[in-house]
Amino acid sequence: MATLDALKVFVEVVRAGSFTAAARRLGISKSLASKRIAALEEELGVSLLNRSTRSLHLTEAGQIYYEHGLRIREELAAAEAQVQSVTARPRGQLKVSAQVSFGFMYLAPPTTAFMRRYPDVAVEILLEDQRFEPVDDSVDLTIRMGPLPASSLVSRPLCKVVYGLYAAPDYLARAERPQHPRDIESHDSIFYGNYDLGAHWRFSLNGQPLDIEPHSRLVINNLLGVVEAAKAGFGLAYLPTFAAQSAVAEGELVPLLQPYWNEHGSMLVLFRSRKYLPDKTRAYLDFITDWFRERLVL
């Protein structure tokens, strides 16, 4: 069991790229993670990692052990899923990672409704604004805004994501309202730091993508912060409609250039395996998929 625990830590250290990040994902201390790797190396009689103050690199032996460790972890996950599937009712601890803005605005109602239906399931929601990271051992489902990089993870769409341009009435009283996406370059703008197209905002012109590079003196890595800065009248903001919906309803933001808005992909739920999903995970996945299909209009 000690070797198996150490193997899990080793795989997570390699995937995370550091002891600190791996320990945080696994819910253990950095020192404990380091001790487990050291004990594993002593037991095997080889060095698995070359450590420096700034980075970790696999040794030749470490690469071999890592590849086998990944397969072992997948087999364990499959075995656990099959064992759990024999239970008559979903039960256990479920951990869900979601982007901060979407999770904050939309995830609590379906999750609490799900928990009322399945009282034997406990749910922990992690709100994080990393654009994408692999689903690790401690997370059952990850909700992220696509498109996402190619990976081995399985995905299921929750809802379409459309990006649009917004500004506060106060800003529009001081600045000329843009009539075309190219007018944006002469305006102050608020930039979402985790946006996947980098320094460009994408619109649609005659069915073709039109990329605009805004003049952004303010960069915020959280959509809720971008919304608040836009409401304060600092400048134009390029936002998914789900993030701006409430502020528009309250009259705090005004939609602009709607004929040029661009469908940007989908909000996706990511998970490791379609075949070996535990009952608790499959039940939650099906529940929130149905919930958003019926209720969320973006």
Layout of strands and helices, then pairs:
Layout: H1 2-16, H2 19-26, H3 30-44, E1 49-51, E2 56-58, H4 60-84, E3 92-98, H5 100-117, E4 121-127, E5 141-145, E6 154-167, H6 169-174, E7 188-192, E8 201-205, E9 208-212, E10 215-220, H7 223-231, E11 236-240, H8 241-249, E12 254-256, E13 262-271, H9 279-295
Parallel strand pairs: 3-4, 3-5, 7-10, 7-11
Antiparallel strand pairs: 1-2, 5-13, 6-11, 6-12, 6-13, 8-9
Helix pairs in contact: 1-2, 1-3, 1-4, 2-3
DSSP strand count: 13
Alpha carbon gyration radius? 23 Å
| Alpha-carbon distance between the two ends | 48 Å
Largest sheet: 9 strands, mixed
Protein name: LysR family transcriptional regulator
Domain HTH lysR-type: 1-59
Keywords: DNA-binding, Transcription, Transcription regulation
Family: Belongs to the LysR transcriptional regulatory family.
Kindly describe this structure:
Helix content is 41%, strand content 26%. With 298 residues, the chain is an alpha/beta fold. Strands 3, 4, 5, 6, 7, 10, 11, 12 and 13 form a 9-stranded mixed β-sheet that branches. The model has no long low-confidence stretch (mean pLDDT 85). This is LysR family transcriptional regulator. Belongs to the LysR transcriptional regulatory family. Keywords: DNA-binding, Transcription, Transcription regulation. InterPro entries: LysR-type_TF_proteobact-type, LysR_HTH_N, LysR_subst-bd, WH-like_DNA-bd_sf, WH_DNA-bd_sf.
